[in-house]
Fold this sequence. Notes:
The structure holds 2 protein chains of 2 kinds. Chain A is mainly α. Chain A folds into 2 domains: 1-39; 40-106, no CATH class. Helix content of chain A is 74%, strand content 0%. Chain A is built from 5 helices and no strands. Chain A has helices spanning 4-24, 32-38, 41-55, 68-83, 86-104. In chain A, helix 4 (68-83) packs antiparallel against helix 5. Chain A is extended and about 55 Å long. The two termini of chain A are 35 Å apart. Chain B is 76% helix and 0% strand. Chain B has 2 domains: 3-164, no CATH class; 176-232, no CATH class. Chain B is mainly α.
Amino acid sequence: MVEWSLIVYCGIITFFSRYLMIAILKKEMFTDRIREVLSYVPSAIFPAIIFPAIFLDNSGDLLLEANPKIFAAIIAILVGLITKNVIATIFSGLISYWFLIFIIFN
Amino acid sequence: MSNRFKIFFKGVTDVSPLMIPVVPFGIIFGVLAIDLGLSALTTMAMSIIIFGGASQIVFLQLFSAGASSLVILSSVGAVNSRHLLYGAVLSEHMSDFKMTWKIIISYFLVDQAFAVTNPYLKKSNDKDKVFHSFGAGATCWTVWQTTTLIGIFLGSIIPEKLGLSFAVPLTFLALLVDDFRKLINVIVIIASGFIATIGYEVIPFKAYVIVAAVSGLLLAMILTKFKGLNNG
């Protein structure tokens, strides 16, 4: 059971991070250096979601051999590099994953 | 048509193309939440109260892994820290807005709304320019709630063996597509991913997201410093 208070707190954090940017933070508070480093936030945090979901199995063990998710992710990355298209990246990965689990690894 | 409505509508049309990738993202969130055993009501409440795709997915992932409230909160905080970057550019264009508007826009301003609202505010001197942000934000909100709802319905239909949870890493992967070509980003991505994967079982309290994120950002600080020295 998800605690409602936890959802509300996460909502407050999310709201406040946006309120900070709209109402409080000023351009002068940020040096170019800080802005440069902050621009790496997505690259620093999203892989922490991506990698475990690809390389670990359901019980949290490393799965490197015969792991269809690795192949599908590589295809998605290649499609992403070529097309720079978000939808194409997601669906190429998903379709190749289904192809692998239902036809090749089946 | 009143001027305010015209500006509101401009916000709607400006942001609409950016809604295409949001559609699968919202549906995936709904499906995944139902798969993880959340009720339809809780799932919908998350989309309304939190209203941030990345925050909601991180919440789900950590919650299903059994992370504590503190770890979930700090990880959601880390996900949101990218908004601080926007603050550097946005607040000066919004300084004339009324307090109430600032609060409303703060709730609505997801990444996609920011992407169109920032260039508009930069060039517009219209006294009603806040309606552009409002239109863009309200569009994002409507699309997100609708797709969450679709996901909730599909979640009870889609068979689990389709492995739709794999769409989560793919969605985040897609958000990083522009960074794949930059060397420092690629190094940071691999380092953060490696630490999270190895740390998943090792780091206590499921704090692997926050540990990997902080390490990745420290690495980015070092590498950009190094690059700056080379160029200078």
